[in-house]
Specification:
The complex is a heterodimer of chains A (201) and B (197). Chain A has a two-stranded antiparallel ribbon with strand order 1-2. Helices cover 67% and strands 2% of the residues of chain A. Chain A is globular. Chain A is mostly helical. Chain B is mainly alpha-helical. Chain B has one domain. The radius of gyration of chain B is 18 Å and the shape is globular. The chains are: A mainly alpha (201), B mainly alpha (197). The interface between A and B is large, with 45 and 42 residues.
């Protein structure tokens, strides 16, 4: 059994869900053109991952293995609905601009992946920690992409203009292809560093 | 408000300018892992198109005739997931009975589809944009075809890329992402002409 510190390092860097496992990029790339949306979305994903890992681990002895997938999906859907309702109540505008992507957290493979790979064979608190750090690793990568996209695409950060006058916004940064380019470059740089550190790639 | 959209432009738009994969980033997970192989890509593409069209219509019916009249809209995520999972299951059984060869070609992809975000994503877009029945039909069919086309194109490109000299650290995910980015630029290039929103 791995310790909490190792899990943190693995989920944040050497086994980062995005650039090492290519999981869960579906629902989140779309929201990375604005930092605020990305922050809300990734916090939502982190919370859902942590709590559903915790719940799955708590119930692991009661779930028959034949129906475990559907039980996991229902547990995840339960937490996603809570996140959705909270967003609608306290941040209706962000909820509106995120559109269907909050609901799509359900099909985010990271959550299911952590539940299946870790929570089913580990105690609840450690699973919670594993879920939370996976979410955090996911958040870090997406925040880097979001900051670059918002800064170059709109010239703002969190909605505040920060670049000097006369800066021409890069239209491509607002459109979807830039997310693919940035993620590809990010994966590349991360792998170069990992290789220098002697890790398996 | 029902958006007043020409059905034909909605259909074309959902294939090209608002491609579910390249513009909305849905269905990426299986897209990247399956596109290594041309034949599987084609199989998965067909399966996604079929499932997407059927579940799009069923989810529209469930939404408009069950969830809205009974005021249970907050349960929609769970209901949509259950509809998708059961349609996939039933389809798998039917294909198994009707044609063994089709089952061998498509059957293995069907379970993968349940967790494909494109299917749930289309259901949620239909709900948010309040499409009518015909709009739903064409939008889900168009999105399926768009996804199918994108994965087959990418599989063909990856075959070429495999033989090219690419830095070791960029191989795999990195170069695939950048290739998808270029494809996305080409697809979205027409976006001034058509809008689906």
């Amino acid at each position: 059994m791995s310790s909490a510190k190792e899990i943190f390092k693995e989920n944040l860097w050497t086994k980062n869900p995005i650039f090492m496992q290519v999981l869960g990029i579906c629902s989140a790339l779309a929201v990375t053109n604005l930092v605020t949306n990305t922050l809300v979305m990734t916090v939502g994903v982190t919370l859902v991952t942590a709590f559903s890992s915790f719940t799955v681990s708590l119930l692991k002895n009661f779930i028959p293995s034949r129906v475990r997938m559907i039980v996991q999906v229902l547990i995840i859907a339960f937490y996603v609905i809570i996140v959705d309702i909270i967003l609608r109540a306290y941040a209706p505008e962000i909820s509106k601009s995120l559109g269907p992507y909050v609901g799509l957290i359900i099909t985010n493979c990271i959550i299911m992946g952590r539940a299946e790979a870790f929570a089913l064979s580990n105690p609840p608190l450690l699973s919670f920690w594993d879920g939370a750090t996976s979410g955090f690793g996911y958040m870090t990568v997406l925040m880097v992409i979001a900051i670059i996209r918002e800064l170059l695409g709109f010239g703002t950060l969190l909605g505040y203009p920060i670049v000097p006058e006369g800066f021409t916004p890069w239209t491509i940064m607002v459109t979807p292809p830039s997310a693919f380019f940035l993620l590809g470059t990010f994966v590349w740089i991360a792998k170069i560093i990992l290789k220098k550190q002697g890790a398996e790639i | 408000m029902t958006p007043d959209l020409n059905l034909m432009s909605l259909f074309i738009g959902s294939i090209f300018t608002s491609n579910i994969l390249l513009a909305n980033f849905l269905g990426m997970c299986s897209f990247i892992s399956i596109s290594k192989n041309m034949q599987s890509s084609n199989g998965l593409g067909i399966a996604v198109t079929v499932v997407l069209t059927i579940t799009g219509i069923i989810n529209w019916l469930v939404l408009n005739y069950i969830l809205i009249p009974t005021n249970l809209l907050y349960l929609r995520y769970i209901i949509f997931i259950i509809v998708i999972a059961s349609v996939v299951q039933i389809l798998e059984m039917i294909i198994d009975r009707v044609s063994q060869s089709l089952y061998m070609a498509l059957g293995i992809f069907l379970p993968l589809i349940t967790v494909n975000c494109a299917i749930l994503g289309v259901a949620l877009f239909i709900e948010i944009r309040q499409y009518s029945f015909w709009q739903t039909l064409l939008y889900s069919l168009g999105s399926g075809i768009g996804w199918w086309m994108a994965i087959v194109l990418l599989a063909a490109m990856r075959k070429k890329i495999e033989k090219s000299p690419i830095p070791e650290t960029l191989q795999g995910t990195g170069i695939t992402m950048i290739t998808i980015g270029m494809m996305a630029m080409a697809f979205i290039g027409f976006s001034g002409m058509l809008t689906v929103q």
